[in-house]
Predict the structure.
Amino acid sequence: MGAAQNALGEPPRVRRRHARYSTGRGAWTAREWFLFRDSVLPACDGLALALAALLIIGEWQGLGYALAVLGMLAVNGAHRRRICLRISDEIPRLAALVAASLVLLLPWGYPAATLLALGVTSLALLIAMRAGLYAALRAAYRRGRLTETALIVGTGHTGLEIGQILLEHPELGLRPVGLLGGPPRRPEAALPVLGDLPGMAAAVARYDARWVIACFTGNRDGDAGLVTTLRANRDLPVRVCVVPRMYEMATAIPVSCRDELWGIPVIPLRRCGPRQSGRLAKRAFDLVVGSLLLIISAPVQLLLAVIMLLACGRPVFFRQVRVTRGGDRMTITKFRTVRVENSDARWSVSTDQCTTLGRWLRATHLDELPQLINVVCGQMSLVGPRPEQPYYTSRFAKLIPRYEDRHRVHGGMTGWAQVHGLSGDTSIPERVRFDNYYIEHWSLWLDLTILARTLTQPLAGAADSIIHRTNGNGNGAEAGTIQPTARADSPAPGAAWPWIPHDIR
């Protein structure tokens, strides 16, 4: 399993076997069972809130209040499955959300005493219902029922300690099946080593693991491999928790954002990048906004094509193969900005090898407008990591850690790296860092922020071009400065990349 990887270094898809869980009347699939498990806590909260509203108010406003509190609990992560079932950790947040929701009842003029009684009753019933549920779950766990299998990533001291804790404390509800990583430092490990990091998908499928506890390794290179493995297996239906370095200092992490394994704090990870609903929303956003921009910019593109044809001759457009999500290849179209004799010379060309119109198009980024067609067709996104050519993609994937992680989403016309000035001949590792940050923290608001910042660049670029031209320096650069270079329009296998650190070449 570890040796079989695709071009992006991701492990192949593994078909998961579906365990079946006995309920006394029949068998449920694992998916059905865990959907039921995830709905138990919201159902208990809803029952407690509905009962409080019925006892104190007894009107439809009480139902609205109960739904509002239930919604706020869900939004604030209070329904997240937890390993450590300790009700005392949850009381402050429950009290804050219950009190905040009482504001919704103020327009109906309820007396302060009624609102106070509703808040106190709601909180008391929530605590009682949750405490009863947690006690029942712990009792079931101790009897070996309702437990879930867990896979521990890391064979160092922390990984071995986590495995021992789970074996000695069944009330946590996790049943460890083994470790992933190299040979353990202590030969007396209580759990077997099931393979190395690239075999995570196979181990999850074979043992039907529902939790992955990732422990830090002893060196930075090992952590880099762990991050890449977790990203490559992002689609596995497991919950992932990470044991932070210096976990003894984890008090800086809010209780609502961490869990606990017998005194060792762990951080639950949300799925990186857009989820299915997020991907649909992003695609709808790209389709609507991309179509509008394509229609609005059509006259401008037509005018630029005519000017390009008259001033520079054929070809007007430049087409090139780039690598996008999952290693797929696509052909992008841009306005040609480099003289024909220089268009396939090397990785980068100086600005004096561009046409006069081409330098202006690059400065204003208007040469990118034809790529709106790729966006509308679904080959690209308005915002995302800039796609690279296949030759450079394969080279950078070997030289730069986590470069291939950029291909978890579609390439974009603009991106988080570009609005921070990381385009052209700038540091590739820094671009990778910004691109992966964008993927991990994606939201529609972040896309809007990047687009807003991108739309200001043509004006800034045009002004900068005018300033450079008025300085009298014929090649468009200020005197006494290093010549800026523009990206070439085709690959050059013999090129060198001075912005790549020597230690990773």
